[in-house]
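Raw record, unedited: N-acetylglucosamine kinase-like BadF-type ATPase
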Amino acid sequence: MTDHVLAIDLGKTGCRGSLRLDGQETRSADTPGAPGLANAGGVEAAASAIGTVIDRLAAADLTFSLFVGAAGAAAAPDAAELLARQLTEIPGARAVAVTSDAVTAHAGALGGAPGVVLAAGTGAVATAVDAAGRFTRTDGWGPLLGDEGGGAWIGVEGLRAALRAHDGRGPHTELAAKAAEHYAVRLDELPKHLGQHVNPALLAARFARVVAAAAATDDVAAAIMTAAGRALAGTVLATIDRSGIAPPVPYAITGGLVHLGAALLDPLDAGIGDAVERRTALGGPIDGAALLAVDRSTALEALVVRIT
């Protein structure tokens, strides 16, 4: 039995690995993420990203337990199991487990305890676990059908506003000039630029920070950020309602959008109101993956695919 744990947080923007010994991180590595397990070729893309991270972290003679929280695993459980089985072929992997990155985000934020967690990064998903271990998931449907208020959604809305201004179909916005500058292309080249990228959602999400920064001086950008915050609040409130947990519910937010500041967080907090008991996230999804790798007693265990 090995004490080494290799925890992986595989999102649509990035893939991070953390090698830990007795709970302490010894090494970490990052690589670009993958479109998601529910996408065509999602398992192969995920396995490639994970393999790259493991190559950077694990010596040839190292044995470890591998735990992966992957985007799209909840929407495509068969793909999650297929990924887990493929990962057993990695040298040194004594045990393999795969679950949704929403599950690892919940475990990392609340330490496996009941409550609601909003994971807001490239995508957006809220999860709830009650005292009996019942799991509720809201949104996380991907950039085409959902992820409302997430980074890709904000980026796309900003780019749409830029093109509307370019066409004269919408109000003037500084996002038009900022989009051309950010992507180093003419506005009329944006569709081709995004369409040819292997992960368009990731590319669009990178514009979210630009939209958030512009919100201080640009009414169009401010309206997008307010709409994003309200959409995320609606996701949290729907999760609470569907879970049946009586308010105020323990709540934490995690993910890259936490750093977008007041333009997003103020409308989000106002929309949630007093339905939650706000807590600072204990850790991120990578910490949740490390926790679930060694603790099979949490309420989230039924959502984990384990192969030993």
